[in-house]
Specification:
homotetramer; alpha+beta; Butyryl-Coa Dehydrogenase, subunit A, domain 1; Butyryl-CoA Dehydrogenase, subunit A, domain 2; 8-stranded mixed sheet; 10 helices
């Protein structure tokens, strides 16, 4: 698979090598965790131990200093070839540390001691292999950018109330970054509240039971009058989702997820190609690879994978280039919407093509892939999660991309 | 759903009404049987009791006398709205009795006492609600039309050896009709061997564990030196699959299956339409049905369902018309290939569109359908079985349709 | 092509036979009229002479008494195999007379002498082969249902002002039925003004020059203070397009157009199949039909044609059945929206599949079809007109179908 | 259009700037040349004058020294935004000079004086703006790689006989490089015969009349006993198309063509976006860009363009990297097949997506784009040429990609 995505920075090369080493180990347990819908704690521990979980942590805090979203995406892509659930769970934490690192550098450069301390503390914890972070955004009954979970004023800080769904990685998280609404007199904000696992008023529901990605621990979390001190609240933007911080958070969390679904598709392609190059069928007992319909199916997979890799590579390279060449105060909301529209093009395309690739693989398998004994049957279920992942669903993405392209206010008509 | 398919004969109306009454009852148990991969014996018993399982049995033998493949298809379509697994399992038996009735009528008309007695006996059993029949065709490692299971000469008849896969309905079948190869000195035949369940040399594997259609009991059956008397062997055609009997059997078994996958898609459409007409989401709290992307998704489903219903209706009406206007000796292999090419067009199209409809429904569900708690997550797994069902896979169907249309020998290049 | 659509009524059989006789004659001139963008007057004259142009005229007025929209559609389908431009031009007139006949029967039955006289006069003229009618609906800058062409009060009637585009058949029309807006004190109506060709204030622009359907004479017509007497104005519904008359007019005009685009696709399929069954290419010099990619391309065409025929047949049969079983006062706006949603499903699907079939045929032609010398290059241009034809564009159709299905007000959000 | 492809080398930047300056000038004449099917000689002259036509000529011979296929592709992409016909005609010459330069450098480095002299002479001519080269490959009745045009032994060299089709650029070419078969006693070769325009035995047919690309001069050329001296014959590989020279020629000619079709799609997108941002329609008189269906159509175009750009960029960058890092003797046939499979993925995908983008643009135009007065109607015809362009048709490409991926002999089963 020589046309696969390759890392372009030194920390990226280290990280991707770590991920490639983890993948076969994770693969060996994937079927079992899928069947039982259990969270593979051992995978997370292995990544804490290898250092992969600290990839985005600055070297000053004990990490690899990986800043390239391209390379981060490539690493998550490799993890997904072993286990998609672990890949998306890891991306949750890696994306959070990427954002924290950016915030820490900015706070340090601009002298914002409070933020520098908080983010620095978190990064040191991750760097030491002692902290797992998880971002809680999605809620049933609303749309990203419009959290209903709310912070209200209380003695000594704020009270957090609400229910978060799809809390991937939360079974092992030490720290939750909870997206919430905060209504002030003159402002209606999205904020992130930093909450330690096990705090009073936090309930993990252990209710993740889904079609696929069953080992991702994407359970619900309920917050009831959970006290959050002032300094643990970060403003992300306006309720409704505009704001550079909000957009950077969205963008940096998405590309790794897309890499994961590409990784699932690549793994499926590998399985099918290997299979048809060795299986024979009566009456001719020719290799299946010699049948023209199989050749065509494989070609269609190759085309979709080639397009998917190219888009993901180009989009993440653009992001890296933009962030490398723009100081925080040079980053504009319009630039970010343009970049995010490109990210959404890539997300929409790649996640759909990943579904298509697996579907074609099933067809090429001739029915064998439909059996539970085949990894294809699991990957068919896993890959369908892609279009649901943040930021936007396909329909929302179409509207967003269209509006940005047409120079309109990109707020969705929800 | 006023544009649904409707029966056109009196026995058809009775049968479809029975199926519509069974469907909600079957639906109430579908999730549980799916989870546990158990076979819903109670559903089969209910259909034996209501008379639906004897639909294709002549009135002389205690059945409804249903001969219309159109109406048979409509009934199976209704069953599938309740439980797809039960629908395809029922179609197995119903198709077998449709073929047996045709053979019985022909044998009676042409004075073939042996066949008349054997088929008459089977039909009486079914008519009395005391016999379930199951056809075993598929094998791993070969293609329909080229069975590797084989009959070899033995004292007092033939010995049957081989392994059949995807033996839908077999857990409760009393009688297996086993497709096998019989090499004679001057002939290489496909035959059906009629074998009673529980005979010596028959092993049920209880190994059905698949992505979907988990309650269909599609387990393997192994035959080891199973003795089959001469009179229990029917010649179906040449090994390789040509022959009018073989083609009539293929054709009559397919349309009900297609009806089943249409039924799954219709049920999914019903669930989603009902859902978006009642659910609301922040920030606007409008009904989801008022969102333009939802309207478009629903329109796309309507178009696919309209096309699917029209094709299935037209194809089965053509079949009914052909069989009603052609005596057995007027039926030609060329006519059957033309009809079968049309059947394959319909199968390929409808089974794919059913997959597409469920995929769109998942998208429209916004992630809710991905949870195990939603019936959509089960129906997404069930519907994907469609393209694998007999006769041809999509790739085989393309080749077959193309060759028939272009006036070539339709034998597949396997 | 034994699976083609066949007429089901006696007048339909006569009409379709006439059309089948005209088609090869029309085909012989199609390339020339296409090149020069000239209107094939001789085709219209031939149809007036054969009686085909009076198909929908009651026998009392000298016509065939064709009332089945199914059979009308089949006839137009046959014309289009010869010349698509003539087919859509003919449908314009045929649809107008179908509506006039319905209005005449209703006026006669309900004792509305004025309408009976006007429509009766028109029908007699058509029945005598002496009158061609053309309906003018489309305008640049607005949407069907919202005409900007307007009738304003004047001495002795109304003044008509406005510009109509896509005036198919207008070069030879004797009578224009012009959709216009009429604002009354308490009402804002869509009306049809009946205007004789050559009247004062009517200007034909002779400006039809398009990608395809170049021989359809779909030029602009400009009306400047054109006087229309009171009795020549028929109310069709509210401005915006609701109302049973308006909907019946829309529905009855569409199905023939869809039949025309199906006819183009069928002709293309015929050309390509014939071609690959006779052409050979180096290095093997096998017939092209023996290549697996060609077989697949042909199979994909067959599937799309089978689906298209089935939908068109089922939809028009439903319409016939509805109109046959409902007296005018039993026809409800809700029923019509349901029927029209089905018509729009069929229009959207068939017109798109016709485009796809021609595209695949071009691919299968290996480049030969791209040359002007090949009829495929013309049919590729012609067939693309389909999605633009009334009533709705694909995007409008999606919205309409979705809203009707979801029980919402079907007015488009324009 | 900030996400467009950008050149990455200095000569590339110069070349692309030249092309961007030519494009609007070419655009001003495109409609007229299309209507009359005339060859835009003035465009070629302008490019000779600006130096763009000598882009791939080494600086030693008066050119820009452009070696990057990526940047060559980007330049052709820009030309196509002005006039697709001129872009593909230019690519013919540019590709030929790219190959000649490579041959010249190799011959110089390895001391092959004859080849160095011949290619050097040609390059000097191009560098001086005095020579236009055209490669003649396609023939009716055979497949690329299997030319039927043949060289036979004659006094003083070889006699060339055959007919070439799709001779793009030939109306102004000074030199034809004619792909032909040469059967030797022990070898059956593909060769290129270098023939001066106007030589004895060469007939230009002036017969180019096609659906689109009407200004590309893709006429037939007939060779009858045309004498070619020994030193004007270059061996390209075995008849049937294997061989590194043959593959390098194929690969280097394709990417610019793909760039051209991407350019057409980009231009169409620009036209439509501009249009919907300024047009309004009754009844609302909102901008069309505010309609959700338009936003979605635009988003779908953006996604397809983003994928197309990314693939083309990645593929050409890979080619540049491979050729930069491999000396001629390090280039293997297996490597080239892998690279070519990737090129074919990109060609198949981008050319199809370009067709889709223009189709969607037509839909979004609401019928206006169907009129000859709109550039969309021309671009709809032009863009459909893409899938026919060399090397492989879509069906051939599927087979080739499949076989390469599956490790089979990539020779097509023709």
């Amino acid at each position: 698979m020589e046309l696969e995505l390759l890392p372009v920075t030194d920390p990226g090369r280290t990280f991707v090598a770590q991920c490639e080493e983890h993948a076969p180990d994770f693969a060996s347990r994937a079927a079992e965790h899928d069947r039982d819908a259990t969270f593979p704690i051992e995978n997370i521990e292995a990544m804490q131990k290898s250092g992969a979980f600290a990839a985005c942590v600055p070297e000053e805090h004990g990490g690899l200093g990986l800043t390239s979203l391209h390379d981060l995406t490539v690493g998550v892509n490799r993890l997904a070839r072993g286990d998609g659930s672990t890949a998306i769970a890891s991306n949750m934490h890696l994306g959070a540390t990427w954002v924290a690192t950016r915030a820490w550098r900015e706070a340090t450069a601009y002298g914002d001691a409070a933020v520098a301390e908080l983010t620095g503390g978190m990064l040191s914890g991750v760097g030491a292999g002692a902290l797992v972070a998880c971002v809680l955004i999605t809620e049933y009954g609303t749309t990203p950018g419009y959290p209903l979970t709310e912070l209200t004023r209380a003695e000594g800080g704020w009270l957090l109330n609400g229910r978060k769904g799809f809390g991937t990685l939360s079974p092992v998280a030490d720290l939750y970054l909870v997206q919430a609404r905060r209504r002030l007199d003159d402002d209606d904000q999205i904020v992130f509240a930093s909450v330690l696992a096990g705090s009073d008023g936090v309930e993990m529901k252990d209710n993740w039971d889904a079609l696929g990605m069953r080992a991702s621990g994407s359970q619900d979390l309920v917050f009831r009058d959970c006290l959050v001190p002032d300094e643990a609240v970060f403003v992300s933007g306006q309720w409704g989702g505009n704001g550079t911080s909000h957009l950077i958070g969205m963008i940096s969390g998405v590309t790794g997820l897309v890499g994961a679904f590409l990784g699932i598709a690549e793994e499926v392609r590998r399985i099918v190609v290997e299979s048809v190059m060795t299986r024979r069928k009566a009456p001719s007992d020719r290799l299946l690879s010699e049948r023209s319909a199989i050749q065509r199916a494989v070609a269609e997979m190759e085309i979709d994978l080639a397009a998917s890799r190219a888009m993901l590579s180009r989009t993440t390279a653009h992001l890296d280039e933009y962030f490398a060449s723009h100081d925080p105060e040079q980053v504009t909301i319009n630039d970010l919407h343009r970049l995010n529209a490109d990210v959404q093009c890539t997300k929409t395309f790649v996640n759909r093509k990943a579904v298509d690739v697996v579907d074609r693989a099933l067809t090429a398998s001739g029915g064998a892939g439909y059996l539970t004994a085949s990894p294809l049957s699991r990957l068919y279920r896993d890959v369908r999660a892609g279009p649901f992942m943040q930021t936007y669903s396909p329909n929302e993405a179409y509207e967003y991309i269209g509006k940005v392209t047409l120079g309109l206010d990109p707020t969705l008509d929800l």
